[in-house]
UniProtKB/TrEMBL annotation, chain A:
Primary localization class, coarse: membrane
Name assigned to this protein: Sodium/solute symporter
High-level lineage: Bacteria, Bacillati, Actinomycetota, Actinomycetes, Propionibacteriales
Cited PROSITE patterns: NA_SOLUT_SYMP_3 (PS50283)
InterPro entries referenced in this protein's UniProt entry, alphabetically: Na/Glc_symporter_sf (IPR038377), Na/solute_symporter (IPR001734)
Transmembrane segments: 13-30, 42-63, 83-104, 125-150, 156-175, 187-205, 243-264, 285-310, 351-378, 399-421, 427-449, 456-475, 487-509, 546-563
Keywords: Membrane, Transmembrane, Transmembrane helix
Organism the protein comes from: Auraticoccus cholistanensis
UniProtKB/TrEMBL annotation, chain B:
Residue stretches spanning the membrane: 23-43, 55-74
Protein name: Uncharacterized protein
Protein keywords: Membrane, Transmembrane, Transmembrane helix
Length: 564, 101
């Protein structure tokens, strides 16, 4: 194994420490409740639209985006753009234009709550359990990345890095770092841009500019020019047939995975629902879509540069292509290291500190958010509902605190699962296929079809998840041969279809809920007046959701064509 | 929100130091300053070798300082105002904070 070490010096550590002073400072100050302005920002109500828009995308600008997308960029090149331009951006626009009015106008405030009110306890329990499990597994991904950075900085062994990182996250939650969420999210966005933009520019400078990068990537004799065309993306999807590949990307990645992720991710949706009116709520994801469509240039491009500029990674990629993943493991690096390797090679001390601060902040905040979502679901949706009812509030707070500690410990083990994947995007997309795809199907049908019955709710979720796991096992055992992320796309699409079909069949033979109980839960039973903002037409064009969403859509189509 | 407007003792405050724009501006500004100093005084051949000859700290530092100044200036020129009203003793929260439109 070669050792990868980031040569951080005092100045870098100072810049990293400064970040934590800022964020923890606000957290501690907020707990004492002395500043009206902190309270205003933390309450999340009626914030300026650009703040909620950035917080909205920053909440997932952590492990998934930064490390996963650069790893993907290093491995596949341009096809990775689909995660943004077919996946996230259209999904965010759909959320703003179609879904948000319904969320805002109805009584829906969280996914488990929707499941309980719409389908009753069966679907609620299944959803709560699978959500809790998903959060722990994703917390493991964030923890693994944190541990990797500790390992690269200090050279400590992985297990020690994981334990230390888990302890740091626990301290961060306890010290009130999480309560400074909105500051942290917006700040994190700028720090990450401040780190990745210079990294990208210096990287480009070193490979001889944009043209130089194109030439080097085209001539790498591994992926070659395939990596410079986003479509049809056969390496990414694993389908040899280009038509199937396009269909797989649009339906699997675009529709099921991305629409599912963004429309059922209430951690993020709630950022928007705190807005002062329905128009502001709709604008949040739409404003977020604009910076979001340019994020790939500072995460995917550095990954591609790393794959041609960093010797170890180029070697890894060559062995990976010629002898497979197992043999490539002997080089001591993986695609997940792309960004860290590029940082090591091109960033001077100083900028290196800014970059490490940005990454640490993102993973820590990401893991803290997973853990806190886990403990909320565990103490209120599971413990209070199904284990010990009618206890005083303090009791559930105590359960929550123990859940936090337990989650940090379990995350150390789920991090070891994440460590087995040489490209974290494969793992994350697999998880989303298991959990988000069936949820999205159940959610859609529950929302738009009033006939869907309580039994159908939980049957659909269970069968959807099981079918995704089944496809995953088929792919792992080699029965189904889809290299790239195709297996995850197929698993997600299967889960979605199985969920819908079973729900329809079961609904037709079981008894639906009385229509009177569905007001605010099903589209057709919700008064139309709740879904529109009467003042919207008086606003200037740039503050209205539909025209701005249209503009974003045009831009994203242009980007898709320009990099096709 | 209309109750808040009518509440006795409500007063308008500027958001001030903890305006998120100042917060961003100050942190990025300090980063920029440190990088600028590092770029000016500690730029050597090792770093030049890493970056391909560009004094990256210097340029990134300047960029960050400009950005930081713009954010602080923005919050000065267009301050956010909030309406703060003290609640009666025993209320759920000690005060109500609402934006002014």
């Amino acid at each position: 194994m070669t050792e990868i070490r980031l040569d951080a010096q005092l100045v870098d550590y100072l810049l990293i420490a400064l970040y934590f002073v800022f964020v923890l400072g606000v957290g501690i100050y907020a707990k004492r409740g002395v500043s009206n302005s902190i309270e205003f920002f933390l309450s999340g109500r009626s914030l300026p639209a650009w703040v909620t828009g950035l917080a909205f995308i920053s909440a997932n600008l952590g492990a998934v985006e930064v490390m996963g997308m650069s790893a993907n960029g290093a491995q596949y090149g341009y096809p990775t753009f689909h995660y943004f331009w077919i996946g996230a951006v259209p999904a965010m626009l759909f959320l703003g234009v179609v879904m948000m009015p319904f969320y805002y106008g109805s009584k829906v405030r969280s996914v488990p709550e929707f499941m309980r009110m719409r389908f009753g306890t069966g679907a609620h329990l299944v959803n709560a359990l699978s959500f809790a499990l998903a959060q722990i597994l994703i917390a493991g991904v964030n923890l693994y990345l944190l541990g990797t950075i500790v390992n690269r900085l200090l050279g400590w062994p992985m297990w020690l890095g994981l334990v230390v990182a888990a302890a740091i996250v626990l301290a961060y939650i306890t010290l009130g770092g999480l309560s400074a969420a909105i500051y942290n999210e917006v700040l994190q966005f700028f720090v990450i841009v401040a780190a990745l933009l210079p990294l990208t520019l210096i990287g480009l400078h070193k490979v001889g500019g944009w043209q130089g990068m194109l030439d080097r990537v085209r001539g790498d004799e591994i992926g070659g020019a395939e990596q410079l065309n986003a479509w049809p993306g056969t390496d990414l999807s694993g389908f040899q047939n280009p038509v199937l590949s396009v269909v797989g990307i649009v339906l699997g990645l675009g529709f099921v995975l991305s629409f599912g992720y963004w429309t059922t991710n209430f951690v993020e949706v709630q950022r928007a629902m705190a807005s002062k009116d329905i128009t502001a709520a709709r604008m949040t994801p739409i404003i977020g879509a604009f910076p979001k469509m340019f994020v790939p240039f500072i995460v995917i491009i550095p990954g591609m540069i790393a794959a041609v500029l960093v010797g170890e990674l180029a070697e890894y990629k060559r062995v990976y292509a010629e002898q497979g993943e197992a043999a490539a493991g002997a080089t001591g690096v993986t695609y997940n290291d792309s960004l860290l390797l590029l940082m090591r090679d091109v960033l001077p001390n100083g900028l290196l500190g800014v970059a490490i601060a940005g990454l640490l902040a993102a993973f820590m905040a990401g893991m803290a958010a997973n853990i806190s979502a886990f403990n909320t679901v565990l103490s209120y949706d599971i413990w209070q509902q199904y284990i010990q009812k009618d206890k005083p509030d303090e009791f559930y707070l105590k359960v929550g605190r123990w859940a936090t500690v337990a989650a940090c410990i379990i995350a150390i083990f789920s991090a070891l699962i994440a460590a087995n994947f040489s490209n974290l995007m494969d793992y994350l997309q697999t998880l989303f296929g298991f959990f988000n795809a069936p949820l999205f199907a159940t959610f859609l049908l529950g929302m738009f079809w009033k006939r869907a019955t309580p039994t159908a709710g939980w049957v659909g979720l269970v069968a959807g998840t099981l079918s995704a796991v089944f496809v995953f096992v088929l792919a792992e055992t080699g029965v189904l041969n889809l290299p790239g992320q195709g297996a995850a796309f197929v698993a997600a699409a299967t889960a979605f279809v199985v969920d819908i079909v079973l729900m329809v069949v079961v609904s037709l033979v079981t008894r639906p809920k009385p229509v009177a109980e569905l007001k605010g839960l099903v589209y057709s039973e919700t008064p139309k007046a709740d879904l529109v903002d009467p003042d919207e037409k008086d606003l200037p064009v740039w503050r209205r959701p539909v025209p701005m969403a249209g503009l974003a859509l045009v831009l994203v189509v242009v980007l898709n064509i320009a990099f096709a | 929100m209309s109750e808040t407007n009518d509440a006795p003792g409500a007063h308008v405050e500027k958001v001030g130091g903890f305006d998120i724009r100042n917060f961003i501006g100050v942190l990025i500004g300090i980063y920029g300053l440190v990088l600028l100093v590092w770029g000016l005084f500690f730029f050597d051949d090792v770093e030049a070798g890493k970056t391909g000859g560009v004094n990256a700290n210097l340029w990134a530092g300047i960029g960050m300082l400009v950005f930081a100044a713009a954010f602080v200036l923005w919050s000065r020129l267009r301050p956010l105002k909030i309406l703060v009203a003290e609640n009666e003793a025993g209320a759920e929260a000690p005060k109500d904070i609402a934006p002014t439109d």
